[in-house]
Design brief:
heterodimer; A: about 250 residues; alpha+beta; three-stranded mixed β-sheet; 7 helices; about 30% helix; B: about 425 residues; Formate dehydrogenase/DMSO reductase fold; globular
């Protein structure tokens, strides 16, 4: 008879419970986070089961409100240098006026995160790339700064870093001499959050003009809204399948 | 036709040394300009987030387009069998490689990260026309280099025709690639047109030949080598045809756009309301680069005057730069049509014409590319026998009829050292 056989059932139960508790403490937060926010575990690759997109309701977007722009600049460390022609803008407010009727609109324009992005097509080194979940990014290490993607983008969504950078935010590395654009706040999205502009529109401005979510999930708020109302995509004639939809234009 | 004697230039005259000095100074200034731009960032240039390709791209694209055109003289003899052009084949290949080198230098040094050239050479996205061009450009050096060797090495002369044919096809592909950089851009009103590729090919014929004529005249003058009237007359007639063809393509390009209502905006911009771009189009591209050279080249009096032919060639170069400027800068300046039918405004210059004025460092970089081209040619013709000792009609024209009082046969000029006799006709 071995020593372990002499252990009491109580002690065995205690060890088993302790192990279960330890495992629970270790794993549960991740499981909980994943369950609640649908975040992708960081050790798993991005998959095309998700297609991130945005719906912008121009009827709710107020002329003169730039909370989304400010939030983007703060989140991503985009500082102006007082040179608007060369300063980076990842999201901008565009004012529209119908010359026939005089009707006006104001709405934000950002990277459309196209399914068929021309910036990715033309990039010679493959620095411009599209993730499987639809987010279009620039690899700062392989961008040579040729700016062909800026020539190719129909939405003027990209900026070239024209000057030496300082005070970058840790979550958004940038690079002098490279091209950049809206990342859809990929660092937030990968952690289960929403882009800073959407958050600002909802929480700060209280307008709810921007909805972010998974276009592949029929149960998501964005999918439900898209199913309910006809929406527009900018330059839809080009067949690029932008991930950003607009309603009210 | 006599045997052609190719010689190096002696290259120890004050004029030659001074030329090297000047060209070297321009190259040094260009490198200084690059350091200034890269150190500070591109905000010190005229470029911005609206006009992302500026003056360096104008120079680079012009030089690259002209590079493939400069090869035509060699192709005319090797591929199309015109023996009279044969003595010019070596210089033609040299000039074309030098132009490409100058153009690529400007293109690369204007990158946001020129230090990442290795990335561009090792990581490829094969859907990008830029990536194709990297192969087309580097391949051009190899193909034309081999072609040049076949011409210059007597044992290899028998392969000249095949090498020349490969080079000719390659150069057509190269210029197709350069034109397609713009032809493939679906986003912009001024581009997205299949005519860009063939138009760039015909532009290359014209710009390349104009530069070749100017370089040939300068070299012949500088080294006292005879240059026959028949050869000049042939080349100027050919230049006239090319200039007319460039005009024809410009007409077709704009007529096609004018027919489609969606392009009326951009056409009105280029042709009538575009300020500097309209001016450059009509006065630069059409008048200086097209109509005036045509008149000079085909007028019975000026068409026989070398100075006037040189002037016409120089005008083709100036008009060509204007044309490339209108295509590249004008095409970007016209606002993107993101919301058709609406008046648009924003903090990011939506809906308004982009503004661009070339800065000094950009111009200096572009001129540095030109200087690099000329420096390569100047050094190469001293190092190797690229130049025929004579291009007098009596020596190269197979149909030459001697005039009544026979002048003494031309000798190699005193600035030369006889080096190599090769290539019997």
């Amino acid at each position: 008879m071995t020593k372990t056989d002499t252990q009491s059932p109580d002690r065995r139960r205690f060890l088993g419970n302790a192990a279960a508790l330890a495992a629970g403490i270790t794993i549960a937060p991740g499981v909980t986070l994943y369950g609640v926010a649908q975040a992708k575990p960081l050790d798993q690759p991005v998959s095309n089961s998700v297609r991130w997109g945005m719906l912008i309701d121009s009827n709710r977007c107020a002329d003169g409100c730039t909370d989304c722009v400010t939030a983007c600049n703060t989140e991503n460390g985009l500082q102006g240098h007082g040179r608007p022609a060369t300063d980076a803008q990842w999201i901008r407010k565009v004012n529209l006026r119908d010359p026939k009727t005089g009707a006006k609109k104001s709405l934000p324009v950002l990277c459309m995160h196209c399914s068929e992005p021309p910036c990715v097509d033309v990039c010679p080194t493959g620095a411009s790339f599209k993730r499987d979940d639809g987010i279009v990014l620039v690899d700062k290490h392989t961008c040579i700064g040729c700016r062909y993607c800026m020539m190719a983008c129909p939405y003027k969504a990209r900026s070239f870093v024209h000057e030496t950078l300082s005070e970058q935010t840790p979550q958004t590395p940038r690079g002098k001499g490279t091209v950049e654009s809206c990342t859809l706040c990929v660092h937030r999205v990968d952690a289960g959050g929403t882009p800073a502009c959407v958050e600002a529109c909802t929480e700060k401005a209280g307008r709810d003009a921007m909805v972010f979510g998974d276009l592949n999930d029929p149960a998501s708020e964005i999918s439900k809204k898209l199913a309910k109302h006809v929406t527009t995509r900018l330059r839809a004639d080009l067949g690029l399948e932008p991930g950003v939809h607009y309603s009210g234009i | 036709m006599k045997r052609i004697l190719f010689t190096q230039i002696q290259g120890n005259s004050t004029g030659y040394i001074a030329l090297l000095g000047w060209l070297g100074a321009f190259v040094a200034a260009a490198l200084g300009a690059v350091y200034f731009m890269e150190h500070n960032g591109h905000y010190v240039t005229g470029m911005n987030n609206q006009i992302v390709w500026g003056m360096p791209h104008v120079f680079a694209v012009f030089l690259i387009v002209a590079a493939s055109g400069a090869l035509n003289i060699a192709s005319i003899s090797s591929v199309f069998g015109r023996v009279m052009y044969k003595p010019l084949g070596r210089l033609s290949t040299l000039l074309s490689l030098a132009l490409l080198a100058g153009g690529l230098m400007v293109l690369v040094l204007d990158l946001g990260r020129p230090d990442r050239l290795d990335v561009a050479m090792m990581k490829y996205n094969f859907k990008s026309i830029f990536a194709w061009n990297i192969y087309l450009y580097t391949g051009f050096f190899a193909v034309v280099g081999v072609y040049m060797w076949m011409m210059m090495e007597r044992r290899m002369n028998r392969y000249t025709k095949i090498a020349g044919t490969v080079a000719f096809i390659w150069r057509l592909a190269l210029t197709t690639g350069t034109g397609s950089i713009f032809g493939f851009l679906v986003a912009r009103q001024a581009y997205d047109a299949a005519i860009m590729a063939p138009m760039f090919i015909i532009m290359s014929f014209s710009f390349g030949l104009a530069i070749f004529i100017l370089v040939l005249m300068a070299v012949s003058n500088g080294t006292g080598r005879p240059l026959g009237d028949v050869l000049i007359a042939k080349m100027k007639n050919l230049l006239g045809v090319f200039v007319a063809a460039v005009l024809y393509f410009a007409v077709v390009q704009h007529l096609t756009n004018l027919y489609a209502t969606e392009h009326h905006g951009v056409e009105a911009f280029i042709l009538s309301d575009g300020g500097i771009y309209t001016g450059l189009f009509w006065f630069g591209q059409i008048l200086i680069g097209g109509l005036l050279p045509l008149a000079l080249l085909y007028h019975p009096t000026t068409g026989k005057d070398r100075m006037m032919i040189a002037l016409a060639a120089a005008m083709v170069v100036i008009g060509g730069m204007a044309q490339v400027y209108v295509i590249i800068i004008g095409g970007q300046a016209y606002p993107l049509s993101i919301f058709p039918g609406y008046e648009v405004s924003s903090s990011f210059y939506d809906g308004i014409v982009g503004s661009y004025s070339p800065s000094l460092p950009e111009v200096v970089l572009g001129l540095g590319g030109v200087a690099t081209t000329l420096l390569i040619v100047a050094i190469a013709i001293k190092a190797l026998p690229f130049l025929p000792a004579t291009l007098a009609d009596a020596d190269i024209d197979p149909h030459y009829v001697e005039p009544e009082p026979e002048p003494e046969p031309e000798e190699a000029d005193s600035d030369d050292e006889g080096e190599e006799a090769a290539e019997a006709a």
